[in-house]
Amino acid sequence: MEATPATLKRRLIVREEMWDIGGGFSMSRTRRWAAEVIMVEVHEDGRRGRGEAVPQRRMGERPETVAKQLFKIRKQIETGELTRAKLSAVLPAGAARNALDCALWDLEAKAKGVPVWQLAGLPEPKPLVSAFTIQLDKPAAMAAIAAENRSRPVLKLNLGGPDDLARVRAVRASAPDAQIIVDANEAWTPVMYGEYAIELGQLGVRLLEQPLPADQDAALEGLGRAVPLCADESVREARDIAGATRRYDCINIKLDKAGGLTEAIRMVQMARERGIGVMIGCMAGTSLGMAPAFLLGAYAQVVDLDGPLQLANDRKPSITYDEHGLMNPPPPELWGA
Question: Model-level pTM greater than 0.90?
Fold first, then answer.
């Protein structure tokens, strides 16, 4: 779906794209064979700002509904009436706001000849170590992937059921030197958490992400901490952080949840003020979707921006990754400069 050009100050283009996932991607809730992304371009004075977002089905988003959100405010965008500072008053947190917010950051950087990190007052981007995600599968299959990637310093395991301890044991045996983080994707119960957490600590798991459903995580307030806990679905934007500090040690900031880089910066600032850790995460998407999030990596205890590594192909130019988990800053031709 693409918007028809308008004779106004700016021109908005919205595209729905599908990117094949090599071998599929499994987690507790679903299995996907392609990454559905929304690509937004804002053209002005011969310049183009771009942003990419992944609609979150768990939040009720679909590519077509995200595109409709953007087309509904197209006139405000193209006349210049709707600035980045006003987005949160017009669009809710989610994929539509993320794609547009990032496109406007990119456009502003090009118009001013200043990279986004400087415009936003962020540190100059340096190479980061990203976690590498191992999809939910049988223990032996996950162990085989871990063995193939044992040179990567951080492995993230997607979990989601009664065999989860066996999965972690198998991966630990295959990659004894790797730091391991695990994501239960809301699939556990308080009883499962109580049964699993101590052994996860003994296995050297560094971080446990979203063990309980977001609407049931109040139970975590009365449970012990064998492994630090990270909120994902329980924290979508900055206003959710205060309540999370009673239940979690860390928050996973994803631009698709937060609604863009602007809100994600607020979240980082609030997390630091409240003394809660930060993880920078992503959905399965191309390097264009990772580029804005990369700018926040300097503030994160864990970086999980390996979305492009889950795809059969990536956008060009792209962020480069090596076999030791190191990802380089986004090239200027991709986004942000």
Answer: yes
